[in-house]
Write a structure and sequence with these properties.
By secondary structure, the chain is α/β, with parallel strands linked by helices. The protein has eight helices and seven strands.
Length: about 210
């Protein structure tokens, strides 16, 4: 597209860098902002700028946080004896939206994938082991995406945890194999968490 204003063109170009935003959608967003009061646009810009510059990651679970601990880890009403292991912050949001889980989380930042050059050393597995070693953890729920890479990661971590007195469970296979956890509907995801099974009963362990 050709624009009569370089300022508009630059703004459209920046919006296009966001995932899932094409040029037409980017232009629509830019024109929407152009119609808004300058103060509203300033608030919008400030919120994005502050989010990027001031956001922190929880020192315990690596969830996004405004302080040293995220609101979940710092909440005494949550079950601190349960840790739900997830790949990303988006998975925490997905599970929280089901309103079925009241424990804590641990973000490992991905899954083991040799083809992509991702090994155990690139994941936040040591942080999980430190939490278990510190005591007080009774259950680790493996809530990784049901893929070969996800199962491989679960198997690797379960071997690391085998010497500790902690129950290892995995979300039920109501989540389709090969799917991404963040795209699973909330009802299915909630039931999968609620009906989790001992890891020993899952297919990879028994095969």
């Amino acid at each position: 597209m050709k624009y009569s204003s370089k300022l508009i063109a630059d703004a459209v170009s920046e919006f296009q860098k966001l995932p899932g935003i094409g040029e037409k959608t980017a232009l629509r967003l830019v024109l929407h902002l152009l119609k808004q009061d300058k103060q509203k646009v300033a608030y919008f810009s400030e919120a994005v700028s502050r989010m990027r510059s001031e956001i922190r990651f929880c020192s315990r679970c690596q969830n996004v946080a405004d302080h040293e601990l995220c609101d979940i880890c710092g909440n005494n009403m949550r079950d601190q004896t349960q840790i739900c292991l997830v790949e990303s912050i988006r998975d925490i949001i997905a599970i929280e939206n089901t309103n079925t889980y009241r424990g804590t989380y641990h973000v490992i930042g991905g899954v083991i994938s040799p083809i992509d050059g991702v090994g155990p050393d690139q994941l936040n597995i040591p942080g999980l082991l430190e939490r278990v070693q510190a005591g007080g953890v009774k259950e680790v729920i493996m809530a990784l995406s049901p893929t070969i890479e996800g199962d491989t990661t679960i198997f690797y971590i379960s071997r690391k945890l085998k010497d500790y007195e902690v129950q290892i469970t995995s979300i039920a296979r109501g989540v389709s194999f090969g799917g991404e956890l963040e795209y699973t509907d909330e009802l299915t995801l909630g039931r999968s968490i609620a009906t989790r099974l001992p890891y020993e009963n899952t297919s990879l362990k028994s095969s």
